Amino acid sequence: MVYQIEMAGTGERFEARADESLLQAATSAGVAIPHDCQLGGCGTCRVKVISGTHEYEEFPFGISQEEADAGFMLACQARASSDMVIAAAHVGGDASAPAEIEARVVAVSPLGPGVRHLSIELPEQAELRFNPGQYMNVLLGEGERRSFSMASAAAGSVLDFHIRRVPGGRFTDHMLASLKPGDPLNVELPLGSFRFHVEDYRPLLMVATGTGLAPVKAILESLMDDPDCPPVWLYWGARTEADLYLHDEIQQWGARLYEFQYVPVLSRPGSEWAGRQGYVQHAVCEDFADLSEYAVYLCGSPTMINDARRHFLEKGASINHLYADSFTFQHDAEALANSGT
């Protein structure tokens, strides 16, 4: 069975078979739908169903039941079961189209337990524009790639990354340790639709786990010393105090951000930890009775993001102002549950 799909707003049309995902059908027809992981985990390909019906083989991890009830679906997993009209999210921003280039390693240094800081320099002729919050692919050859979010605002030719070691990982556990300043590194960038939505005009609630801090840091750096910076709350979840690898630096950000509040939360604190304990999304729910006026940014482990979506929507968070960057695209399916935490 073949169904007719129309993109609301643009009028673009494409055909979708009942045995292929809407994202596959759109891509084959040259119709752009923002996407990242294609595994149903990141939520980037979320679209609004205006009319028509669809189905999943399995309900995807990257969307909550509340979002589905409100008429949203994930195009990478959904299959049409009738003619449809759908509306994709507006990516916006001012980013260049992705390009494959040869960068140079500037430095590799430890940040915290199992986390390394990687700096690379792009060639001057690249002239690429980035949205803070986007990511790059490291190209490993033979079609293999690993994805890492940029941890610095889009300024200059040097970019920073926070890279967590994955035991046995081809890049994070082997190649990264051998890189030296000046070494070439083949990359593809900029990628992804996670970015700051200036058009929202809302206070910002940023919630991250582990190295999910990286794209949040990039966004907040872009807002530093900006007279139009909205109030910002940053909740950062980690296992132990040692895992808060930028704890001291973050405490200085308030001098350059408007009404900045930083709340670190540990799930496995030591006996000397006097701060918040438990899961970071639960700490947010303890502190906010109503989230209806906030723009919410979630970045880190899929488990946190899925749970946060559910609880935050119950607290009144707007589905249209809830943005997620799940680290599902960084590792293969076996690592999804632990990536970014």
Automatic annotation (TrEMBL):
Record keyword Metal-binding present: yes
Name of the top EC class for this enzyme: oxidoreductase
Domain FAD-binding FR-type intervals: 98-197
GO molecular function: 2 iron, 2 sulfur cluster binding; oxidoreductase activity
Pfam families assigned to the protein according to its UniProt record, in alphabetical order: FAD_binding_6, Fer2, NAD_binding_1
Tagged with keyword Hydrolase: no
UniProt xrefs under PROSITE patterns: 2FE2S_FER_1 (PS00197), 2FE2S_FER_2 (PS51085), FAD_FR (PS51384)
Residue ranges of domain 2Fe-2S ferredoxin-type in the record: 3-92
Entry keyword set: 2Fe-2S, Iron, Iron-sulfur, Metal-binding, Oxidoreductase
EC numbers, comma separated: 1.17.1.-
Cofactor(s) needed: FAD; [2Fe-2S] cluster
Name of the protein described by the UniProt record: CDP-6-deoxy-delta-3,4-glucoseen reductase
Provenance organism: Paraburkholderia xenovorans (strain LB400)
Record lineage: Bacteria, Pseudomonadati, Pseudomonadota, Betaproteobacteria, Burkholderiales
